[in-house]
Design a protein that fits this description.
Length: 368
């Protein structure tokens, strides 16, 4: 009786967590793909070049993983083919535990992406979370004889349904933008404020003297103390955005971009743009609509100025152009290219290139 009760609790915890984690990542499979690319890049350089080709199919790998997370979680919760589900979950959690341990121990990937951008965990927190899940799944595998027989018809259709729905939602999110934006650049955020600390940063100083470690709120005037490290006392006051910068060969233009009314045509890599003629026509119509107004539209890309000049010339576009970091651009918008509307640094709207707004709609985003 006790074993069955513990198994029931384990099923609820494991199944519920996998469904929750999977749905968060189904919301943003492109973000999961970016995280998988980081892992594959690290493994390709540290372990084996065999991981290198996986970078090109990281989006497919991401979709398969997130959809499986949801479906396997439902299998464990409903009891349909639960033993198969437990074995598959065991294989998956062993893989995840290896990823998080490697990340934490070697300080390679600072955020595992376990819960997308919704919940941030440190590498060690992610690893300990995976250890707990591994223990629960091993417990279910060891006492599998006490699990349900796995013949639940309702469970079967719920699993199949969750698989289909999760896959469809992932495809929609890829072809558009995430349904819910958990990132620091979501609509309504004022980037100008977010790049500043919310309060004065306070530090403590760890010093040593005669083999004894002492902590001071102010740097000691006694020169006999040896400096060890400086610790931040209020990390919650750190800027929510720390890496936003726009520049070109003439210098930094971040402040300029964050003032007035702007439309940013963002690309994390111009050579990987895949715009149809109709999509380009929609963007061109937007550019033409803002000419002669107080709204300035610019191209911001993680590419060289030569690449941007070529792109603009080939498509007959007349835009100012600036550079930005590829990771930052990918964080801002999950589309290549994508459109971001700003007014005095506040994000008014974000659009996938497939959903470029009509000029009338775009103009109404800004204040009169």
């Amino acid at each position: 009786m006790i074993v069955k009760t513990l198994l029931y609790v384990a099923r609820l915890l494991v199944g519920g967590l996998f469904v929750f984690s999977g749905l968060i990542k189904v919301n943003d499979p492109v973000g999961t793909s970016i995280k998988m690319q980081e892992y594959f890049d690290v493994f390709a350089s540290d372990i084996s070049p065999l991981f290198e080709p996986l970078k090109s199919i990281s989006l497919l790998v991401a979709v398969v993983l997130v959809v499986l997370e949801v479906a396997l979680g439902i299998m464990v919760l409903t009891g349909w083919k639960i033993k198969t589900g437990v074995y598959l979950l065991l294989a998956m959690i062993l893989f995840f535990t290896f990823l998080t341990f490697y990340s934490a121990y070697f300080d390679k990937v600072t955020d595992c992406g376990c819960f997308g951008d919704a919940i941030k965990l440190t590498p060690w927190e992610s690893f300990y979370k995976d250890l707990v899940l591994l223990g629960l799944i091993l417990f279910m595998a060891i006492f599998r004889k006490h699990l349900p027989d796995g013949s639940s018809t309702a469970g079967k259709w719920m699993t199949v349904g969750s698989l289909i729905i999760s896959l469809l939602l992932a495809i929609v999110a890829i072809r558009n933008l995430p349904f819910i934006d958990f990132r620091a650049f979501k609509e309504g955020v004022n980037i100008s404020s977010a790049i500043q600390p919310s309060a004065n940063l306070e530090y403590r100083y760890v010093m040593q003297k005669d083999g004894e470690t002492v902590t001071f709120d102010q740097y000691p005037s006694d020169e006999s103390y040896e400096f060890v490290e400086m610790q931040l006392k209020n990390p919650e006051a750190l800027p929510k955005i720390s890496d936003f910068a726009i520049w070109n060969d003439q210098g930094d233009h971040t402040e300029e971009i964050l003032s007035g009314k702007k439309v940013l045509l963002l690309s994390h890599q111009i050579s990987k743009m895949d715009l149809s003629i109709s999509h380009m026509e929609q963007i061109s119509a937007l550019i033409n609509a803002f000419q002669g107004t107080d709204v300035r539209m610019v191209l911001v890309a993680a590419s060289s100025e030569a690449e941007m000049e070529t792109f603009l010339a080939e498509n007959g576009l007349k835009l100012g152009y600036y550079m930005a970091d590829a990771t930052v651009v990918k964080t801002i918008i999950r589309s290549n290219p994508g459109l971001v509307f700003l007014e005095d640094g506040t994000v008014l709207g974000k659009y996938h290139f497939r959903n470029t707004p009509a000029p009338e709609v775009a103009k109404n985003l800004f204040s009169p």
